[in-house]
Amino acid sequence: MVQKGPRPLVLCGPSGSGKSTLLKRLLKEFPDKFGFSVSHTTRAPRPGEKDGVHYHFTTKDDMVAAVQRGEFIETATFSGNMYGTSKRAVDDVRRTGKICILDIEIEGVKQVRNTDLNPLLVFVKPPSIEELERRLRGRATEHEEALLKRLESAKREIEFGQQPGNFHIMILNDNLDKAYTELREFIAQNVQIKDQDKKNDATK
């Protein structure tokens, strides 16, 4: 389906949970070990977002056609906009020998679990819905109706994230440094950050 390579890392969590901040920190600390899979979306770019960096911005017609051609590993629709990870986006990272990081929604996680990618699944949980709402309002990027939809969606995501077996680890992001340490330790136990894969395999 996609080119073989290191086991991908999936980060999932409600918008405002802090997963993007954790992801950026990971990429900054290990630029030679991790690569970010750039998703496609049909939503309009937000201020400061660049095509091909934050997302591949596309039209609904083009994305639907690409999905029908089998070019996507996972897709999801949120607030009328499509999101998805293309096979090419994952291949582009894996060809470099880097560990591919996917930042995807719950529906995407369900689909990726059914592929041969064998991803490591991490759920980032906000301290509370109240704190999540405070963070989202602080962004001031959405109208009230869209924000309320995000909060409703977040409740469902948290419920799914807490169910045993859906993720390999759930990280409570009530303190960024603590959450990052947890993420880093989980990754160190499961993927090759240093050249210790063979040693780790031998001890399993």
| CATH fold-level assignment | Rossmann fold
**Helix content range of the residues, please?**
40-55%
Placed side by side, the strands forming the largest sheet appear as 2-7-1-8-9
Question: What is the tally of helical segments?
Answer: 8
Low-confidence stretches: 194-204
Number of separate strands: 9
Strand proportion: 15-25%
CATH architecture: 3-Layer(aba) Sandwich
N- and C-termini, Cα separation: 28 Å
CATH superfamily heading: P-loop containing nucleotide triphosphate hydrolases
Mean pLDDT across the residues is 88
Largest sheet: 5 strands, parallel
Structural class: alpha/beta
Radius of gyration: 17 Å
Number of domains: 1
The string of secondary-structure elements, in order, is: EHEEEHEEHEHEHHEHH
Give the overall shape, derived from the CA principal axes: globular
Instruction: State the CATH class.
Output: Alpha Beta
Gist of the model:
With 204 residues, the chain is an alpha/beta fold. It has one domain (9-194): Rossmann fold (3-Layer(aba) Sandwich), CATH 3.40.50.300. 43% of the residues lie in helices and 19% in strands.
Notes on the structure:
This protein has helices at 19-29, 60-68, 87-94, 106-112, 129-139, 144-162, 176-190, 197-203, and strands at 9-12, 34-36, 40-41, 56-57, 72-78, 81-86, 99-103, 120-125, 169-172. It is α/β, with parallel strands linked by helices and 204 residues long. It has a single domain, classed as P-loop containing nucleotide triphosphate hydrolases (Rossmann fold, 3-Layer(aba) Sandwich). The chain starts with 8 loop residues before the first strand and ends with a helix. The protein has a 5-stranded parallel beta sheet with strand order 2-7-1-8-9, sandwiched between helices. Strand 5 and strand 6 (81-86) form a beta hairpin.
